[in-house]
Description:
By secondary structure, the protein is α/β, with parallel strands linked by helices. It has a single domain (about 10-275), classed as SGNH hydrolase (Rossmann fold, 3-Layer(aba) Sandwich), CATH 3.40.50.1110. Helix content is about 40%, strand content about 10%. It has helices at about 30-35, 50-65, 85-95, 110, 120-135, 155-170, 200-215, 235-260, and strands at about 25-30, 70-75, 100-105, 140, 175. α5 packs parallel to α6 (about 155-170). It is globular. It holds the Pfam family Lipase_GDSL_2. GO terms for molecular function: hydrolase activity.
Amino acid sequence: MSATSQNPEALLDPGTAPAAPRWTRYVAIGDSFSEGLWDPYPNLDDVQRGWADRLASTLSERRTAAGEPALEYANLAIRGRLLPQIIAEQLDVALVMKPDLVSIVGGGNDILRPGVDLETITGALEDAVAKIRATGADVLMGTGFKAGGTLAWTNSRVGVFNANVWSIARRHDAHVLDLWGMRSLFDLRVWSADRIHLLPEGHERVKNAALTGLGLPPDDAAWDEPLPAGPALTRIAVLRENAAWAREHVGPWVKRRVTGRSSGDGRTPKWPSTSHWPPTA
């Protein structure tokens, strides 16, 4: 929700038809999280969907159901990008499209790096938010999520990052996608094998969190209910899974860092303009 106010639409009964969202053109900028890794479109090859595309679809469907034109949408996010790169490469391109809603969600790749300067990257984020708000567009930022297990060491950094995000939102009347507060994300079953990207169910739940953050009713009132309890893993099974994760995902990530490469090298945005969306087979 906005840091300073709650949209009355959020108070609608979940069973009633939502009013048409006021936004007409939405542009998402960010990294792999907004690109939508591990949430492939069922009818497209090598194109990921993710929470931002799902959000755009929901906003568009609600607009057309209320007799308004469909939402225009572009997604400039590219995997592997650091927050300063997102701002430098994607922000001005997004603003040229004259959106009235921009989501800028990033920082996770920065937080994983040993020498990250949280105050510097959140200062750059605030400058970007101020630049977007100066155009009259609304902004949706995202907090970092609370990690467990092998990634729990990041939580102290994420906590500082999140505090700054909420302060930026308050100062600039921006909206926040509160990933830290999502109970359902504590379950590894919504995460891919690499433990840093969501599976389709996770992206759907985050989409509903984004709707809530925008002051709109979610599609599913139970969007953040924990998953049903699953079978408990033995200690040996946990150790095996951790070893496989380190071998298959941590090792290649470290190698890319050492060689100065990124998973996003050579990639271009999947929906670089509103004319490329909605997707077709």
